[in-house]
Amino acid sequence: MEEVSSGTTGPKATKMKTEPKLSSDNETYKLRARNIDVFYGDFQAIYDISLDILDHSITAFIGPSGCGKSTFLRLFNRMNDYIDSFRMNGRILLEEEDIYASSVKVEELRKKIGMVFQKPNPFPKSIYENVAYGLRIQGIKDEDFIEQRVVESLKQATLYDEIKDDLDKQALTLSGGQQQRLCIARTLAVKPSVLLMDEPTSALDPISTAKIEELIFELKKKYTIVIVTHNMQQAGRISDNTAFLYMGKLIEYGDTQKIFTNPEKDRTQNYITGRFG
Amino acid sequence: MSNLDNEVKILKDNILELMFLVKNQLEKGQKALDHFDEELAHEITENEKRVDSLELTIDRDCENLLALYNPVAVDLRFVMAAFKINSDLERIGDHANSIAKYILDFGKEMEDEAIQKMRVDEMYVTSLKMMSNIFNAFITEDTELARKVFKLDKTLNQINREVSAITAELIRSDIEQIQNYLYLFSIVRKLERVGDLTKNIAEEFIFYIEAKVLKHKKMKSQNDNNNTDS
Q1: Can the keyword Lipid biosynthesis be found in this entry's annotation (chain A) (predicted)?
Q2: A260: nearest CA in chain B?
Q3: By the CB < 8 Å criterion, does B12 face chain A?
Q4: What is the span of the domain harbouring residue A91?
Q5: In chain A, how many domains are there?
Q6: In A, which residues are within 8 Å of B75 by CB distance?
Q7: CA atoms of B3 and B1, how far apart (whole Å)
Q8: Is the pLDDT of residue B151 over 60?
Q9: Percent of chain B scored above 70 by pLDDT?
């Protein structure tokens, strides 16, 4: 395993110089991005970004539309691989292992790093089958095990109490907020350790948004969460650390409280105070 | 200019107006004391309603800004500072009003020699200088100018510390004038409080501009020293 230490941008990054793995007592970096450049054909979408994400933390990516935050998020479970013109320099490490190494199987990676999208996208199947889907495609046939995992995941996603008598009901009949929590349950069923969320509440009403935010906060105990959001207040409310991206560059990354009360860079201040972007 | 910028500007203008009004109340108090100007003292007590009214307006401005614009970073620091500065200014207005009431209650010109000995004029000049500094600092966003009030506040504290002994001496030398001396003593105390509140305003202003917390700094450094000693 190769040690990575230079060019670190992240919370408590100064400690990295002497202690590359541990940021402080009992805190470990789950994900690390190193000198990332991303190109779509001739267009460069990301410029030399390095940052570290703490285990069991919520990290928010903020920035104006087109700044590269979703592109950057999708690198963590190789969602950009499907785009023909996509090209990347640099390395992304999950628990110090390079996820772009030739030995890594993408399907295995996505069991470890799940993703929730902006628009709830349940399959046109029953609620139960939506959550069981990931387990079934893994070849698991033990119905008792599947049922136990489905119930556990729905409970974790704080949806179970609302739909426990309707598990055979079509998932598409659920409300938008319920559908999004179902998608989170579906992601949790395969036991990932990282959850990527791309604007998970942008299509939801304030009550559903509040429920998802509570859920995200609760999930932090077991998972490392990275969320892209356009909602400044949401980033402030739920995240531990915030990264501000602008035109493909990482402008500022650090403690959310600091970013939202006294950011280092004028550009960050102008963006979060709504003066540009 | 964005809506938020507009609201921030309105709030700043209202704070400046209250600052100007309160400073004016103090200046009038000095003149009313020097020449026993009853009319001017009455004017101060009348103006107190304007101070209270502006305080309520600024409170409402702050509340609206927080509720409707969710300010962050420098805007949030400004609203937080504005809340506290508003309260400090209103209390300075209260002290100016109390001084005017002392002048009216005494009902005649106070003894000039006692005013000199108790350094009441010096208290007035210094506290007004502090108010001017903070007023100009607010307009020009000059934190160095705001910092000058800390040194001036020490002058007020020094005079305040010495005034008890001076008052006692004056009373011993002429017991007939005890009421006069006690009113002047109370005025010195009020002006010392004005100095403390102006210092608080300077600290809040520096917090808004530089994001530095200065209050209780002396106490903190003393505690740190004590901990090191032990």
Answers
A1: no
A2: B73
A3: no
A4: 13-272
A5: 1
A6: 273
A7: 7
A8: yes
A9: 94
Contact A262 B4 (CB under 8 A): no
Q: How confident is the model at residue B220 (pLDDT cuts 50, 70, 90)?
A: low
Interatomic CA distance for residues B74 and A199, integer angstroms: 26
Residue A6 lies in a domain: no
CA distances from A135 to A49, A123, A142, A189, A195 (A): 35, 14, 10, 7, 17
CATH number at residue A245: 3.40.50.300
Do the domain assignments include residue A69?
yes
Note which residues in 59-88 of chain B have CB less than 8 A from chain A.
Answer: 70-77
Residue B158 has pLDDT above 50, yes or no: yes
Identify which of A233, A236, A269 has the shortest CB distance to residue B74. Answer: A269
Check residue A40 and give left, alpha or beta (phi > 0: left; psi -120 to 50: alpha): beta
| Span B145-161, average pLDDT | 96
Confirm if A277 and A230 have CB atoms less than 8 A apart. Answer: no
Residue A13 has a pLDDT of 38
What ipTM score was computed for the predicted complex, to two decimals? 0.70
Contact B73 A272 (CB under 8 A): yes
Q: Which domains does chain B have, with CATH numbers?
A: 3-216 (1.20.58.220)
**pLDDT the model gives residue A14:** 34
* B72·A236 Cβ contact <8 A: yes
| pLDDT tens, residue by residue, A24-76 | 555 689 999 999 999 999 999 999 999 999 999 999 999 999 999 999 999 99
Cα separations in angstroms, B87 against B58, B93, B111, B197: 10, 10, 34, 9
Does residue B101 contact residue B45 with C-beta atoms inside 8 Å?
A: yes
Q: B6 and chain A: CB distance < 8 Å anywhere?
A: no
Q: Tell me: pLDDT of B229 over 70.
A: no
Q: What is the pLDDT of residue B223?
A: 60
Is A273:B74 a contact under the CB 8 Å cutoff? yes
User: B9, B70, B72: best mutation site toward chain A, by most A Cβ within 10 Å?
Assistant: B72
Strands, E, within chain B: which ranges? none
**Residue numbers in chain A where pLDDT is lower than 70:** 1-27, 277
Contact B72 A262 (CB under 8 A): no
